[in-house]
Structure formats: structure tokens, C-alpha cells
From TrEMBL:
InterPro entries on file: AB_hydrolase_1, AB_hydrolase_fold, Maspardin
Localisation: Cytoplasm
Any one GO CC term of the record: cytoplasm
Species of origin: Macrostomum lignano
Protein known as: Maspardin
Keyword annotations: Cytoplasm
Keyword ATP-binding on entry: no
SUPFAM superfamilies named in the record: alpha/beta-Hydrolases (SSF53474)
Amino acid sequence: AAAAAAASCGILRSEEYLGFRSAVAHRRVVVDDDDSLEWSMYDAGPRHVRCPLVCLPPCSGTAEVFFRQVLYLTSFGFRVIALDYPVVWSLGDWCLSFQRLLDHLSLARVHIFGASLGGFLAQKFAEQEHGRARRVASLVLCNSFVETSIFQQTNSVKSFWLLPAVVLRSTVMHNLDSISSRDREIADSMLFLNHSLHSLSQQQLASRLTLNCQDDYVEPHKLQGLPVTLIDVFDDNALTSRVREETYKCYPDAKRAHLKSGGNFPYLSRASEVNLHLQIHLQPFLNSPLSPADDSVNPTACACVETPVTSAAATAASAH
């Protein structure tokens, strides 16, 4: 089934994707005492930029799901790092390992674009920095959530590590299989994520599901003052309107980017719209200590996008 899906996926056969695979190196990094805790990444753009955009994938996807963001934003001089997670079993361990990764890469601060689980992990990392110097300069959350109880899997968390990969894949895809689309781009994005899902090992799947479903929630008061953009899609996707409303309540001052359609994976199916919203979010930081781009090479990377500097963004930039 996975082979058939891959064969019918236009994205996997596209020159754009094949060009990405040939042009951007796939690196593996171990930053913990345990050599089995391995991060993998695509790091593109000017390496001297110390406040890049870091992309964190959903439970079902690998770093490759952001290849369209990597290609587009680096063409404007941005540094973009798309990550795959190590196998860890608690949010605390994930946050500690992510902090060590930032140290290893000599990144002073980062802007984080998190999709679904990636967005939740980004929030938890920013939350644990409360009361000390922030490593997170800003957040962009796409189809994400603020509490794990929505998945109704908290009682299964302790058994994920025992289950075979085929059962874990079925668990991940449970909410997605019921969603069909006549939109070719959305259908293709689902095929791409299905291919991505089948590339994950049993341990990777079990770890991600454990992080996704263990009983926890975001404490929004610990993220006050952090510039946030919320990207949401209003057609069929795995998140309910109640989940979106809970996220809005946590971030009343956030910029909201609403897409009429795009499914669960708009960074693939509606890449041009998502890329535009990322540019709008990042523009206030250009030509500042928190710039995610090489301003000397391309100081007007987003000159085509007119948006005022938000007070939160200005505060974050001046606090560095």
C-alpha cells in the first residue's frame, strides 16, 4: 500500500522535490550522552545566521514535509532548519535534547514553525524557558493544539512502545483516513505524508505518539509577550473548531492566518499561502539581532509584504 501511494504521489515525482533532495544535505546529529538519541535535519541557507527558522513536523511526518518552505525561504536569504526528532519518551527529555541541539548548532535564538505535534512541542519548550533567557524568539503554529486530552489516548500512552509499527501507523492515521478530498493538492499532500509515515521506525512512531498523547497542556501565561502567528485551515482536517477556539483563547494577541482550504498539511497543499504568512510573521525581525535572514545580502527579503512591526515583536527584538 505504501509503495502504491508513493507511486501515485505527484509531489514525490516532482522536479521541485527531487531538486530539494539533491541540493540540501540530510544531516544526523547526536547531542546527548546516549548515542541512540539522534536528531536529523535539513539545514539550508546562510550558516552564519544565528536566529533561523526551525521547522518541527507533525506526528505523521518527517522533516521533508517542509521542503517547500525550505526552498522558498532560502531563496530570499533566510536560514531554515527542518528537523526530525530523536526517540524520547517524555516532554521534559525532548525539551532538554532540543536545548542541547541549539547549543550544538550555536543558535542564540530561534523562530519556530511547528505543525500539529511540532507546534505543541514548540510551545512546551518556550513554556519551560519562563523566568529565564528565552531561546525562542517567536512561534508560528499550524493546525496545532494546547492540550493532549483531545486525542483521548492518554490511557494508551504506556503501551505504545510495545505495539508493532503497523498498529502505531493505524493509530496515527485514524483521524486522517476519514478525510478525503477531490482537491488534487490536498490528496497529494496526504499521499506524501503516508509515504513519510511509513519511513518512520516502530520506535520513532511510539515515541511521537507518546509525546502527542501523554496527559499535558500548555500554560499560556508563561508565553506572554512572545510573538505568535496561528495558521489554521477551515476545511476538513483532524482538529475540531473547539480545539482551535481553545488555542485562540491561549493567544488572544496572536496574528491569525486563516486558510479556506488545505487539509491537515497546508505547508504542502497550500505552500504559497503558508510561505506568505511565514514571511509576514518574520518580516518585523529583519535587520535586527533576531533576524532569520542574511540582511547584508538581502536586507529587503520581504519588501513585497507590508506589515507593521507588532509591539510584541519589537519588544522581543529589543530584549536580545
